[in-house]
Design brief:
The protein is built from nine helices and 14 strands. It is of the alpha+beta class.
């Protein structure tokens, strides 16, 4: 007994009280996947490490003074497979236990098989080494943070377990390679502990690298060497943008041909004939249209038909009527251009200013003759 460990002291006291070795919870149940459990949907429990036990199991665990957290050994004696798990709820039917799918796969269990459940104690983990089962795990930007969140649904992990978790609607599988401390059970408790996580190379990683290298565009090499043979993007090449562009010559010819289908003369309701009429009949003149090569089976601007989930933003910007093009320089027009005249009849050219007139002596008046009050001329 460790005098510094309260749990060891509690277990020793219980053993002394019960007059011998401490009893363990040990029962057999028929196993079923969580999806078959009646009641509300529990999809998140499918990617965790906790099981559903019947209410009678809780009563027995209480009588046995099983300490928290309640951890269990799950044993498939037929194939000698074992793992560890916690308990989420005591809502299962009597004689049944509901397991996450990954636990049933680890223990090689089928629906309705018998499984032995024993209570146990595990040391809090300090280190765990994991191996992703697919290279797609590398696409997660912060895997340690994602796993830290996923471990909240687990109570214990065992070496050789291949557990699963869900992230961004994707299911990822991880294998446990190593745990510390390893005290013979090859398992650790993941609750209320600081766990250091290390990753091994994912399965199929080398093949994944080879595929990435093969699928790498050859354009990178051309750009590195300064050789660019095609300035269009992959989308423009796929839809043949040159053929449907608004400035394409064939499209312009098609528009002209469409406009010429109604060319000819006509007759007014009045007595006067239309200037465009060349004969006395109201039958329009037939005109010959040039042999236009149709684009995609039609004339004029062609519709852009793309596969589902694809968008194209390659058309040039054409400002609406009455709106100036921001790319063109704005010219300032002179609204008062021309020539003008002064009061003395002198012509002033546009843009010039009239010359300053010399100041007149106020005694000179307006330059003409006049009389004063004394009837004397100035």
């Amino acid at each position: 007994m460790d005098s510094g460990d309260p749990m060891s002291m509690y277990q020793a006291a219980m053993q002394h009280r019960m007059g011998g070795a401490m009893r363990r919870f040990d029962e057999y149940y028929r196993c079923y996947p969580i999806a078959m459990l009646s009641g509300p949907d529990r999809a998140s429990a499918n990617h965790g490490g906790k099981v559903f036990l019947p209410a009678s199991a809780l009563e027995k665990l209480t009588r046995l003074h099983i300490s928290y957290p309640m951890l269990f050994e799950l044993i498939n004696g037929a194939v000698e497979k074992m793992t560890h798990a916690g308990v989420l709820e005591f809502t299962a039917e009597e004689g049944k236990i509901y397991l996450p799918p990954w636990i049933m796969n680890t223990l090689l269990l089928e629906t309705g098989d018998m499984i032995q459940v024993k209570s146990t104690d595990l040391s809090p983990g300090s280190f765990i080494k994991l191996q992703p089962q697919s290279p797609t795990f590398l696409e997660i930007s912060d895997p340690k943070a994602v796993l830290e969140h996923a471990f909240r649904n687990f109570s214990a992990l065992t070496v050789d377990d291949i557990f699963s978790f869900e992230y961004n609607d994707e299911i990822y599988e991880i294998k446990v390679l190593e745990v510390k401390p390893d005290l013979g059970s090859r398992a650790i408790c993941t609750m209320e502990t600081d766990l250091e996580v290390d990753f091994a190379e994912p399965l199929g990683y080398q093949e994944y690298l080879k595929e990435q290298q093969k699928s790498k565009p050859q354009m990178d090499k051309k750009l590195a060497g300064g050789q660019v043979h095609n300035t269009q993007g992959t989308m423009a090449q796929a839809i043949n943008y040159d053929a449907i562009a608004p400035k394409n010559d064939q499209v312009a010819k098609g528009e002209k041909a469409m406009a010429s289908h109604f060319a000819g003369g006509g007759q007014r309701l009045g007595n006067r004939k239309s200037s465009a009429q060349s004969s006395g009949t109201a039958t329009p003149l037939q005109t010959t249209t040039p042999n236009i090569q149709k684009i995609n089976g039609g004339n004029g601007p062609q519709p852009l038909r793309l596969p589902p989930n694809k968008l194209f933003f390659g058309y040039e910007y054409i400002p609406p009527p009455g709106q100036r093009d921001p790319n063109q320089e704005q010219t300032v027009k002179s609204h008062f251009s021309g020539r003008g005249q002064t009061t003395r009849g002198k012509v002033i050219e546009a843009g010039s200013e009239p010359a300053a007139q010399p100041a007149q002596d106020p005694d000179e008046g307006s330059g003409g003759g006049g009389r004063t009050l004394r009837d004397s001329k100035r």
